[in-house]
Design a protein that fits this description.
This protein is of the alpha+beta class. The protein has 16 helices and 15 strands. A 7-stranded mixed β-sheet has the order 9-10-13-12-11-14-15, sandwiched between helices. The protein has a 6-stranded antiparallel β-sheet with strand order 2-3-7-6-5-4, with helices on one face. The protein has a two-stranded antiparallel sheet with strand order 1-8. Helix 5 crosses helix 7 and helix 6 (169-181) packs across helix 7. The termini are far apart. 25% of the residues are buried.
Length: 438
């Protein structure tokens, strides 16, 4: 069924702002209300609250801040009017807000004088405001399409608190929806109301603004300046942060990380794990961890631009500058590093701590082999991938070098159970075998 061309809004005293004294004088095609508003700020507050209570939004169209026969007046139009909008047919950004709506509100505050009190009985009662509402809209009022256009600024602070708690746009949207659904008075239409449940696009915009203010730009001089600004804040919380601009490197030591350097295990074994391409600028985050009774605890966190040997060496020098003699249980470095398969990382570790031993983490090696087997460009059929991986695991977990060599020959298809030979697999496995001492 088609909607009527004009949709009136039913205005009663329940729709009117309770912070003001209101009296509906006339209620026909045009509604007249007398109110005790006394200033331009009162006008703005009244119209804003009226919009909240009727799920509408009113934009300022014209105003006069002072006059000889009145205190001031201001006119508002529905935000679906054609005011300051391109015609809907020319809109290229999505659904047009322009419905050419004619609904309007005009508010005038009369002078309170002896003469006006004689001619207007409402002025004597303090109702100097005259509010004239044309309530006929040319669009639906309670559909999702209309409610999504309502402004969402009122819950912006709530979302900024979510961001301060570490939530991103998607997580904060999901959490906020869950909070709303716990309210027994929630109406189905409230989930479509942008004032109550903002759209994902709005939340992402807020998060970008919040991020720029609190974390600074993602690159360039602004990022460095924000980092310098934050270092003092971090130090006040006993978090040590050191950084260098070229090559870009950041080292972070929190109180718990500093205490973990007192563990005897920190001078024995350290695990190093990097996660690359953490953002659009390809920054990498590297964790150093040591085992303890509660599991693995961090001893330092590093941020680098990419994964270059120079960046890693810069970071490792920074953590030694922070901890000085107390690093790694007063030893200056651990006996053993276990790392992922990153040549730049391993080389930087060897040059910074040449006295330490360096071994590859079995988990990362197995993960890399499994990823290689599933890469279609290597031409390994699906039904052989798991079998080849099983043979590689026999190499990794072999109890003796002789057992490892036998498992290696079996994996390339020369001895043991029959496996078709694949040149790329043999070449790849040979490279790994030649690095077995790592």
């Amino acid at each position: 069924m088609d909607l009527p061309e004009y949709i009136p809004i039913n205005i009663t005293t329940d729709n009117l702002p309770p912070n003001f004294e209101n009296e509906i004088v006339e209620s026909n095609d045009v509604i007249t209300i007398r109110c005790n508003i006394k200033s331009m700020s009162d006008i703005n507050e009244w119209v804003k609250e009226f919009g909240n209570r009727t799920d509408t939004k009113w934009n300022s169209r014209d105003s006069c801040p002072a006059g000889e026969k009145f205190v001031c007046w201001k006119k508002f139009v529905c935000h679906h009017s054609s005011f300051s909008k391109v015609p809907s047919m020319k809109n290229k950004k999505g659904i047009s807000k322009n419905a050419e709506c004619l609904a309007s509100i005009k508010v005038k505050i009369k002078l309170d004088t002896t003469r006006t009190r004689m001619t207007d009985k409402f002025i004597g009662r303090g109702l100097v405001g005259v509010i004239t509402i044309t309530p006929i809209h040319k669009h639906s009022l309670m559909t999702a399409e209309t409610l999504r256009f309502l402004p969402a600024e009122e819950c912006r602070e709530q979302f900024e608190n979510y961001f301060n708690d570490g939530m991103g746009p998607a997580e904060s949207a999901k959490y906020h929806k869950g909070v709303l659904e716990m309210n027994a008075d929630l109406q189905p239409s409230d989930l479509a109301n942008n004032r109550i449940n903002p759209t994902q696009r709005t939340i992402e915009y807020w998060h970008e603004k919040w991020r720029l203010l609190n974390l600074g730009p993602r690159n360039g001089h602004g990022m460095i300046e924000k980092l310098k600004e934050k270092i003092t804040t971090y130090r006040n919380r006993n978090v040590q942060v050191e950084f260098e601009e070229n090559p870009f490197a950041v080292a972070i030591v929190t109180p718990i990380m500093k205490r973990s350097h007192c563990l005897p295990t920190s001078k024995e074994i350290i695990f190093v794990d990097s996660t690359s391409s953490c953002d659009a600028e390809s920054h990498s985050v590297t964790f150093m961890l040591t085992p303890c009774a509660a599991g693995a605890v961090p001893v330092g966190i590093f941020i680098t631009k990419g994964q270059t040997e120079g960046s890693y060496k810069q970071d490792f020098r920074l953590i030694l500058n922070i901890l000085k003699e107390s690093a790694f249980c007063n030893e200056g470095g651990p006996a053993t590093f276990i790392t992922d398969d990153s040549d730049a990382e391993i080389s930087a570790l060897k040059k910074t701590w040449p006295q330490s031993q360096h071994f590859l983490c079995i988990f990362h090696v197995g993960q890399a082999v499994w990823r290689w087997l599933w890469d279609s460009k290597n031409g390994i059929p699906n039904n052989y991938r798991q079998q080849l991986m099983s043979h590689f695991q026999q190499i990794m977990y072999a109890e003796t070098p002789a057992c490892a060599e036998e498992a290696y020959l079996n994996a390339v298809g020369y001895v043991g159970s029959f496996i078709p030979t694949y040149p790329l697999w043999n070449e790849y496995l040979n490279k790994i075998w030649n690095r077995k001492e790592l």
